[in-house]
Amino acid sequence: MSDQEGAAVVTWLRLMRVYHRIQQAAASQLRDHGLTLSQFDVLAQVGADEGLTQQDLADRLLVTKSNVSQLLDRMARSGLVEREPEGRVCRLRLTAQGRAIREKVLPLHEALITEQFAALDVDERTTLQRILRELDQALGRANAEPVMAARQ
User: Fold this and answer.
1) Is 95 left (phi over 0), alpha (psi -120 to 50) or beta?
2) Which of 49, 53, 93 minimizes the C-alpha distance to 75?
3) What is d(CA 98, CA 35) in angstroms, rounded to the nearest whole number?
4) Euclidean distance between the first and final Cα of the chain, in Å?
5) In the chain, what's the furthest Cα-to-Cα distance?
6) Cα(26)–Cα(30) distance, rounded to whole angstroms?
7) Burial class for 13, CB neighbours closer than 10 Å (0-12, 13-18, 19+)
8) What is the pLDDT of residues 89-148, one digit of tens each?
9) Distance of CA 65 to the CA centre of its chain
């Protein structure tokens, strides 16, 4: 393994470690409110943009429409979300209960994430955001290239 490959692997491992620590803290906090990370993601996304379709939500959460469907079924049974038929699609809305939980948990979650990043100063957080955005965009382009080539 070259030095460059080794550095990339170490960077990836460190990124995974940080991600898992933050995810574990967030999951623990949400569990205290009867939510999973996935359920919170749905409440956050649908609450921010009521009327999303199931496909819109799947795209935002980076999962399949089938996975979202199963999650929405459970959340609808729990009284957190509802589907409103509109032509060939269903629009997603939070119920009053879903809205109340979102309003209670979202500020707590945001405070937790802020606390998790408190070890970095503002300039370091800005730099990290820029680097991660660049990597995300580069990976998005790299993943799109084979699709584009196959279409030509």
Assistant:
1) beta
2) 93
3) 11
4) 36
5) 56
6) 6
7) exposed
8) 999 999 999 999 999 999 999 999 999 999 999 999 999 999 999 999 999 877 766 544
9) 15
Enter the tokens of residue 97. Answer: 């209960």
Measured between alpha carbons, how far is 99 from 4 in angstroms, rounded to an integer?
Answer: 48
- Nearest CA to 46 out of 88, 106, 129 is that of 106
Tell me the CB-side half-sphere exposure of residue 61, using CA atoms within 13 A: 26
The beta strands (E) that lie in 64-122 are given as: 81-86, 89-94
Q: What's the whole-model pTM score? A: 0.82
Say which residues have a Cβ less than 8 Å from residue 46's Cβ, sequence separation at least 6.
52, 57, 81, 92, 93, 94, 98
Burial classification of residue 86, based on how many CB atoms lie within 10 Å of its CB (0-12 exposed, 13-18 middle, 19 or more buried): exposed
